[in-house]
Amino acid sequence: MSYGFTDRYADQIVLVTGGAQGLGRAMVQRFAAEGARVHFADLNAAAGAEVLASLDGDGHAFDQVDITDPTAARTWIDGVAADQGRIDVLVNNAGIIRDNRIENISSEDWDAVLAVSLSGSFHCTQAAFAHMRERRYGRVLSFSSMSWRGNFGQVNYVAAKAGVVGFTRGFALEGAKHGVTANAIAPGLIETPMLASMNGPAHEKLVGKVPMRHTGQPEDIAAAAAFLCSPEARYITGVVLDVDGGIGIGSSIR
Ligand SMILES: NC(=O)c1ccc[n+]([C@@H]2O[C@H](COP(=O)([O-])OP(=O)(O)OC[C@H]3O[C@@H](n4cnc5c(N)ncnc54)[C@H](O)[C@@H]3O)[C@@H](O)[C@H]2O)c1
């Protein structure tokens, strides 16, 4: 697919968590292609370095950061703000799954899933908001999931992703008068390593429920993110955008 890329992110500093693969990588590449200086974080240093080497333009950086650690998240974000003088966009993308029926979810797997998606989004947003407020401009985009409405065998992930929706809506109210918007994307089935890690039959069964009858590509998410985080999305806050081929519409009798 070819895009008519613009330079709408020229001079902007964009932060992305979990940028070393999957949706994060596609967003890092898209923001860079639209002129941003992208600073991204991930646990996976080797994959992060590869993504960094692939980017258009200059001024990008990768840091190995565990966003579940509030001090590490704050040190990363304050460091970028000190070096670059601004943070325009924060994308809270990092997330993990530890799927199981409730009787088989350990407390470690419960905590781990909430720690990355929900608490990680909180730690990074709290740190970034301090800098965005000062300049009266910011875009915070967090990652929910089609699962936020409920999904079998995922109560930890459902809770985390519904939590991201609540967090986004609450924070949108606090950010609004400071020029900071907060939105979420709820992806459906998008071709990434996370989706590939789901077992075969479950994967086929799910794809059959997508009204468009196919999975999405990371670039589909990146295109939506590039709009929601842009200056022109200035009057949009507190929304959850389904990017899912229609699966979030609900049940179908066919
Ligand atoms: N792929 C899908 O179909 C889909 C559907 C719905 C929601 N999502 C959500 O979209 C986001 C991205 O998903 P993906 O499919 O690209 O996942 P992915 O597993 O392919 O990539 C996630 C990245 O996050 C990083 N990460 C994990 N824990 C981290 C931590 N503590 N600190 C920093 N980085 C960390 C991983 O190393 C990895 O590079 C997630 O929040 C996921 O829940 C994905």
UniProtKB/TrEMBL annotation:
It comes from the Bacteria. Residues 12-188 form the Ketoreductase domain. Pfam families: adh_short_C2. Transmembrane segments: none annotated. SUPFAM superfamilies: NAD(P)-binding Rossmann-fold domains. Belongs to the short-chain dehydrogenases/reductases (SDR) family. This is SDR family NAD(P)-dependent oxidoreductase.
